[in-house]
Amino acid sequence: MLSLQELRESLKLAEQMARLSLTSGQDRQDANAQDKEQKQGSVPYVPPKQLLLYLVRMGSFTSKPRVESEESQDDHVVVPKDLDGPALLEWVREPIRHLPALLPRTYRKTPAYGEVESPSISAGGTFRVMQWNILAQALGTHADNFVMCPAKALEWNTRRYRILEEIVTHMPHVICLQEVDHYDVMERVLVSQGYKGVFMPKPESPCLFLPNNNGPDGCAVFWDDSKFKLIRKETRVVEVWHVQSNQVAILLILEERSTEKQIAVLTTHLKARQGALLSSLRNEQGKDLLGFLDQHCNTHPTIVCGDFNAEPSEPVYSTMTEETTGLDSAYAVLNGGEEPSYSTWKIRESGECCHNIDYIFYTPSSLCVEGGFDAPTEDDLGPCRAPSFAYPSDHFSLICDFSLQPERHLIHGSDNNSTVSDDESNLPRVLDNHASNICNSKQLS
Question: Which of 82, 133, 342, 431 could make a disulfide contact with 435, Cβ separation 3.0–4.6 Å?
């Protein structure tokens, strides 16, 4: 067992080694840009087993004693029956009418179509996906140290309704969430609108070491059961160099009822904290996720949603979007080829933090990004940023509309002389050549 001093020294040395490994690996890639074998030859630094076991649990506060969870903090919330979407939205808004309005969002089509109003997304083959780290209540109030956020803006009695308001306002067909530590009330509300859901807690949630916790946080996926039928569910504790980490992934195979076409949806939340060592660790988690996808997705159009805790410059982003994966970033396509400037913007005691770390990856060979919602603007956020009375999380939801491309005979991550089917009747509309180029900007290799 490492002493505290030995741990600090080991971490310092490991950080130096990881930084050197990342730097030398990048140098080799730059010098051999056309040589794939050389690119893949860079070997990442692997920390010693004892340090690795500590790293994969870092942030779970395991040096502190566990705090017994309170009885559900939402037992008194009674969800009315037989409310349609607009009526449910009014019910959700009633307890927070004294607060400022929810931050506005601008809907944009992909660049090929120009700016238009948000379309109807009820057509067969077209569906809406939401990706959102909603901010675990225990973390937001006892760990994240949002110095510019008023304490009352973090009170769960009102914040739960603001979270639900964001979801019910947009009514996505698939909802991928992270830092969910109040799954029960969200399920009760969404079930009333025809959704079904699954939840997977982290093995050692940091919430369990904080006062006033409501149980562990984890990932959740909800789907509109009138739109999609669940075919199969797979879950995984994400591994790093064959060691289980504290991060999880949920993978669902869903079948669209009107077209009987199936899609794969995965959600995850990768390791937080900065530095070369944690960046390397996240990259290994990304590789593990890709292996998980290869095992279960086969030919299915695939969507991967998550808080990756990594900017586009980090290795895990390149790993997820490398040509052989068949994946691209929906928001990069929506944004003309570049990721947005930020998906989270907060102020902590250590300073202001504004960067892009949340993504919706998808297979452009089988799916097309129709459009999506931008993050709130800097002016709308105001000087205190997020969370705030007008927005319940430090992360902004990503919301994209997708349409199914014509069928291709594909193996996930490879192209076996793929062909387009003659029947294109399930497309919402015929795409013009420019749009087709954007939607298919990254074919499977």
Answer: 431
